[in-house]
Structure formats: C-alpha cells, structure tokens
C-alpha cells in the first residue's frame, strides 16, 4: 500500500507549482502580496501536520497529503500546512530538517515558508504557525486540525519524534491559541478545532477550546492509521464552501467512518462533533456529578470501590490494562448512566451531553460512546493524577481522586468539603488495610472454587477476577496463561464463584496468553501479547455475546512511557508471522514471571481466534482482587487436573 500512495503523491506534486517562498515580508510576518482581510464566504484550514514515527515508519502523513491533493479547491478555500516532527518523510518533497509551511489552494501545492527545526510539541512553535497562517491566509471561517498521535487529557497531542516525543499539553495549546486569537465565550474566533489523533474527545479538551472555537471534532478511542478521509471531507467543503462548522463536522465524521470501513478498521472506532458553545452546562453538570461523588465518599469511603466497579464496566479507551498501558480515559456518559442509581446528578450529565454532542459515529464494539470521555484513575498512579490535576477541568473530581489515592486533601480540598458540611475525612480502607493475600479458596461438590470475604468486600474491592496457570511439577515450571473475570459475584455477602469452563483462547489452535481489557453487556475484549513479524504488539480480540463468535480486530503497540497512544491499528495479513508470548516462572520458587516466546506460525486467509479445550495436564487458579487504588491481593490457589477436556479438582491448598 505504501508504494501505491507514495507514487500517487509524487504524481500529484509534479503537477503542482512547488516553489520556495521568497516574497518580502512585512514587519508582522504577512507577505506583501497577500490580502489582510478575510473574504466573505471563505474557508481556511490550518493543518498542524506533525509527522512523527507515523510518517517515518509508515508514510501515513504522506498518504493523507496525497488524499488532500486529489481535491480541486475553489479560490475561496485554502489549506495551510506546517510539516515537521518526523525524522524522515516518505516523499521527495518535504524536508525533515526544517519546519516547512505549505499552501494548498486552487493553484495547487506551494512551499510558502521555511523555518529552522523546532519541537512541534512546544507552544511557541504552534503559536508561530497559527500567527503566520492567520496573518497571511485569513478567512471568514477558520478550522485548525492537529494530525499526529494523541494521549488524552494528560498527555495531549503532537508528539515530535525529533525532540524526544515532546507533546503539546492542553495548557500549551491554550497558550498558543490565546496568543493569536482573543478568547471569547460569546463569539469564538474559530469555527472548528479538530484532532486527527487518538483519544482527544475529552471533556477537558472541550473546556480548553470552549472560548476559542465553535465546534470540536475528535475521537474518544484510539484512531487507526488511515485517520480522517481528507479527499472526502475537504472535497465536500470544496463543493460547498457555504457550509458551517456543524455541517463540516458531520461530513468529517461520516467520511472518517466510511474510510475505516473501506480498510476494515471500523469495529472499535469513534468520532464525535461537539458544539462548544453549549459545553458550559456540561461542565457545570460534570462538576456537580463529581461533588456528589465526593460527598458520598466523605460519608462512606466504601463508595470509592462501588464507583470503581462502575468505571471498570464503563467503556474506556486506549487499553487501561497492565499489558497495554493506561490512558485513564473513560466515556463520561456511560459512567454517568451506570452510576445513576447512586448519584442523582448523573442524569444532568447525560442531558447536557445530549445537548452539546451533536453527532457521532462509532463501530459495533464502541456502542456505549456518548461523544466525550473524562479522566478516571484506573491505574491508581498518583503522579499521573497530579499531571491531570494541573490540567483538567473542574475541582470536584480532582479532590475525589486525591482523597481516594492519598487518603487526604490539601487545605483547599478541606475547605471545599467544609462547604459541603464535612469537617474531617474518614479513613479509606483498601487492600493494604486488610489481610486478604493468601485467602483460602473452597471447592463445591461440583468442583467449583469460591472465595468468601464477607460483606466488607463490597467496600474494599473495585474488581475481582482470576489468573490461570499451567503447572509442570516435573520440570519445575509454571506458565501464566492470563486473566479473566468469568465469575459469579455476590457482593452483598462477599462470596465469589468461578465460572470456568475448561477452555482458553487460541489463534489457529495455538493457545495464547490473554488479558481482559474491556467488558460490556454485549461483548468482552481481550489483549493478547504477540510478536508480529518480530515486533511487539498487543492483538485485540473480542467475544460478541450476540453472535457468540470471536473476532480479531487488529494489533496495536500500546501506550508508551510518554503517554502516547499507538495510532496504527495493524490488520493481520496473509504471510504475517505471529509468535505467541507467554510468561514463565519456576513452580517451586518465588521468582517473577518473565516473558518468553512460544509458538510461531504464519497467518493465512483462514486465521482466526477461538476457544480451545485446555490440553491435558495440571492447572492452578488464583483469584485476583483489586481495589480502587489499583492495589492487588491474591488468594491461595486451587489446583485441578484436566484430561480430555474434563476438569477434576485434585488439590486444594490452604
């Protein structure tokens, strides 16, 4: 595919007027032959094209440039582009050693300015580009589009490969925009801000741009590398420049989903259009929602665990597992809907979302998306939370998470709860305050294991599942096969039963390590670590309860240490080589599990994911308890033999 779109791009460029800008500039940076007044009925799109490793490794920015250049623009529509942020561009036109500014217009593509290399993850770099574009190519309606990786509310977007993947945080974005345009909640200067990136349809992003732009188009979930369909949405604008930001936003959403369908990446995609002029009531409702949650926790800290179980079952984005990394982004509406029996203000959140999220598209495994996500501390990482607290909107949920994760509040937090008639904070109980490590399992006459913790579990646990192990005592080997939550839970009495059926996941009959990553009423998702042609990936697989079938959605490389989400959803292709990864330790020692490669096989047209009966041998099951701070405790083990698919419990260890 890369060769095809590179060739297409070069053909298009050869037909364009491609010249360096040598016009004399005025003192404010505006070229002397450019009109300073915006033409009525005109549009300008300012495209911040930070290529990063998406371009150097896959040529995806070049591909989207080639899509854009399929469009013949009218004289009143301009696309101003800044390229940079990549160590290599997969074409012979863009220079990776400089920041370059391009104009795509009715005359074709033209290089109009060149600047020394600088990090596209710096506010100053963004501000310089926006000022240049505004001065030289004003329009009645202006859209600013970011292209790159995204990391959600904490990490932001535009990760520059040349500068240690430095990214633009939300406060840096606001600083840059506000230095170019006068913010106004009554009359936003921009028509639309869009993120052709992962994870940026958040309530915090909406707040950041609420006095800068009328509309926001972004994705709650990670985007596949095909991204926005530029020939379709820019083409629609070229055909009808009279459309406003709402109309254009709807076109972008529909074109994006159609493009995903063309290449088969649509199943877990999201994209939404938000009217930022209506986001004020949502921000108010969101803070009231958080305030009510904080009050419930001050009344009874066991609420943290109950709310944690809601968050675990709410649609969340980018992974949020130990294997994939954590974005800590959850769908705001789904979480509100599932907590509506606990928090009365949840309905106001849902009503406000319905009013400001005008349109959205999504795949069959992202049906609970309501258009905007919010922060939830899935990983219990205090440093990550403080990063969010310095950027995110609203105060209530910040105090809620601070109390949950640290057991205390600073002076401003204590003053906040004092206004809610609370003078002190009760002690937060968690798995560190109880002795549940090594808790014994019992076994029923039918061979079903169960764990009895008592009613206190309801106030301490945010989730419970099990880990499965293969045990080879003769070779002193234990293999960790993964995690699942196929259990029956009696939260009122704190009794938990396994619902294990003696089967496990496999690819073409090769058993795999699999980790639960997402669950809903209609489907369950798992992450499977593999080597794909020698590179580390997490294969995304889903079990659909409606069709009772497994599907392979594709492979991603997860969240890295910078918080950057992998934008490329890599679909399996015939001829790909997959190597499964398992985790091994000694059966008698206390050494840590270490990854090792297992089976290697080649993808065919019939490659599929399915369940298989466990091979004959001995296995161990351990219940895995998790609290809202992401602390873990592990039960004792129940050991069973498997023969011809039949399970017989042979050893119960106290």
From TrEMBL:
Signal sequence annotation: 1-19
Stored InterPro entries: Peptidase_C11 (IPR005077)
Keywords per UniProt: Signal
Pfam families: Peptidase_C11
PROSITE patterns with a match to the protein in the record: PROKAR_LIPOPROTEIN
Keyword flag Signal: yes
Domain of life the protein comes from: Bacteria
Entry annotated with the keyword Signal: yes
Protein name: Clostripain-related cysteine peptidase
Species annotation: Hominiventricola aquisgranensis
